[in-house]
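Exercise 3.2. Students should predict the tertiary structure of the chain below and write it as structure tokens, then compare their answer with the key that follows.

Predict this chain's 3D structure.
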Amino acid sequence: LLILTKEMAAVSDYLYVATDDGSYGFKGLVTQVLEDLVKNQHKQYDHCVVIGPMIMMKFACLMTKSLDIPTTVSLNPIMVDGTGMCGACRVTVDGKVKFACVDGPEFDGHLVDFDQAMQRQQMYKTEEGRAMLKVTEGDTHHGGCGQCGGEA
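Answer key:
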């Protein structure tokens, strides 16, 4: 999570780190850091750049929208082939179909349909699960794991 003021745009000296367990930086979610900075420390920001897992980007965008901070997201995590042919990075932005690899990967985070994008990503899980199990277990895997769609 990178948040900028106009003064910081030229030289960014501020980095806020959040970890789930507090082993480094703030213990908690990036949304909690941002909310604390704006609401409790009365900081003002002109722009936010969010890069990371889809679910984190979704909730960061919900927070920045509520705080009226323009936000750019990078949808690199959903890109596969970089040509727009596979369709894995298809996403709806402001009601229009886009492909992160050819139309982005940066988009206005407040216009991205994260729910639809994350739902689309779910369809790849079973195939990826089967492929991973074949690599790790070879022909010994016969299903029943709930991840591969195989028989028990």
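Discussion points: The longest strand covers residues 47-51. The mean pLDDT is 81.
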